[in-house]
Amino acid sequence: MEEIAARIEKLRDEIRKHEYQYYVLDDPLISDLEFDRLMQDLLRLEAEHPELVTPDSPSQRVGGAAREGLATVVHRIPLLSLDNAFSFDDLRAFEKRVSKAGPFDYMAELKIDGVSIALVYEGGQLISAATRGDGMLGEDVTPNVRTIKAIPLKLRTPLPRLEVRGEIFMPKAEFVRINQEREERGEKIFANPRNSTAGSLRQLNPSITASRALAGYMYDIIHIEGAQIKSQDEALAFLR
Questions:
Q1: Catalytic residue annotation
Q2: Which member of 28, 74, 137, 194 has the lowest number of beta carbons within 10 Å of its beta carbon?
Q3: Could you give the CA distance from residue 168 to residue 202 in angstroms, rounded to a whole number?
């Protein structure tokens, strides 16, 4: 049994590595066929030994049974919204306000138009995923987020606790594909990728979320234990 458990864990680690290469770095190391064979080997072994299935296994991304409703999550640290700047005058006013606290270095980042999400890891395992909601209360969408292959179920560096914030979004190609299918079925099409992301993320049936190729990008460390992050540059490098 120890030999089988070791084989299963080796497969999981290999699949996680290739998921990261494909969905995060966009630099696959093996073909889709080779990846599918690895996944089939894992599914077969886990089916033969269900007692060895773990919540962080790549096999658990496929979705589960439908739920009756979304539970409410209280954010330990409020998830505040971002202000907009529409002109250089707005930027100058912002610079004037923050400069009172001392000199700062700035980092420009792309704004992804998706759905804000907060992820919590304990012991390196994903235990919670919640929408921003009103900043204080969000919705528990953990089963749905677990189906998104760009979101690790297990951290490469296990930390006692890590809370991060980012965006779940739908790539344009996936948005076009889904709308084409909906139009062919005579269903109402989604208005925009953000709208379709929100609808996909709030599904009561995780299998529906799993059928839509959502992506994720984390950009902010809310809380971290077991490591020190001194700048946003370090945070982005860590989250990658």
A1: 111
A2: 74
A3: 12
Domains delineated in the chain: 1-62 (1.10.287.610), 69-239 (3.30.470.30)
Q: Which residues of the chain have pLDDT under 50?
A: 66
Dihedral sign from CA coordinates of 201, 205, 206, 209: negative
Exposed / middle / buried, residue 200 (Cβ in 10 Å: 0-12, 13-18, 19+)? buried
What gap in Å lies between CA 14 and CA 21, rounded to an integer? 11
Report the distance separating Cα 166 and Cα 145, nearest Å: 12
Report the pLDDT value the prediction gives residue 66, as an integer from 0 to 100.
Answer: 46
Nearest-Å Rg of the Cα atoms of the chain is 20
State how far Cα 121 lies from the chain centre.
12
3-state secondary structure 55-120: CCCHHHHHCCCCCCCCCEEECCCCCCCCCCCCCHHHHHHHHHHHHHHCCCCCCCCCCCCCEEEEEE
Q: How far apart are CA 153 and CA 137, in angstroms?
A: 23
**What is the C-alpha separation between 142 and 123, in angstroms, rounded?**
17
| DSSP-assigned beta bridge partners for residue 99 | none
Cut 0.70: pTM above it: yes
